[in-house]
Amino acid sequence: MLRRLERINHSVSAWFERIGIVGLLVMLGVTCVDVFGTKCFRSPIHGAIDIVMLSQVVTIAFTIAIAQIAGRHVRVELFVSKLAETSQAVIDSFVYLFQFILFALIAWRTYVLGRSLETAGEVSATLFVPLYPFVFAIALGCIPVCIIFLLKFLISVIKVVKK
């Protein structure tokens, strides 16, 4: 059951990564064209800052999970690695539980913020793009991360119980 959920979550995270890559390419393209247009033709792209800002949100929100799966986030194990395997599993259980709670809170609060921005009609500064879909994207991007930490928590608890 856990392995199946892990495979599904990995598949969803891989699709999210593709969305993040598109956001990164949009950022790169808009920045290059904006700089080139400004320097060569004295004609910058109207709203380039908004496009880059919103593309950053998309890129970060949709690539957090795959970075976690690939182990690209910083993890300090200086003292924990010297402990017994059971002690490591206990500490890992608490760490993964706290990480799950943190990302669940982030997902919940960004969803609440998105609803607030939607109600208020908040838009970007120059292009007047509604901001709430991008805030919802952050909440959506946190869901696979929550599942990752929940699965790691459960696996750590199983290790502790089996010992």
Write the layout of secondary structure elements.
Blueprint: H1 2-41, H2 48-70, H3 85-120, H4 132-162
Helix pairs in contact: 1-2, 1-4, 2-4, 3-4
Can you tell me about this structure?
The protein has 163 residues and is mainly alpha-helical. It has helices at residues 2-41, 48-70, 85-120, 132-162. It has one domain (2-162). It contains four helices and no strands. Helix 1 (2-41) runs antiparallel to helix 2 and helix 1 runs antiparallel to helix 4. The longest helix is centred in the first third of the chain and has 40 residues, at 2-41. It is elongated. It starts with a helix and ends with a helix. The mean pLDDT is 95.
| Cα separation of the termini | 21 Å
Strand content: under 5%
Number of helices: 4
Question: Main β-sheet: number of strands, strand sense, barrel status?
Answer: none
Quaternary structure state of the chains depicted: single chain
Query: How many β strands by DSSP?
Result: 0
List its salient traits.
4 helices; elongated; mainly alpha; single chain; 163 residues
Brief summary:
This protein has 163 residues and is mostly helical. The chain has helices spanning 2-41, 48-70, 85-120, 132-162.
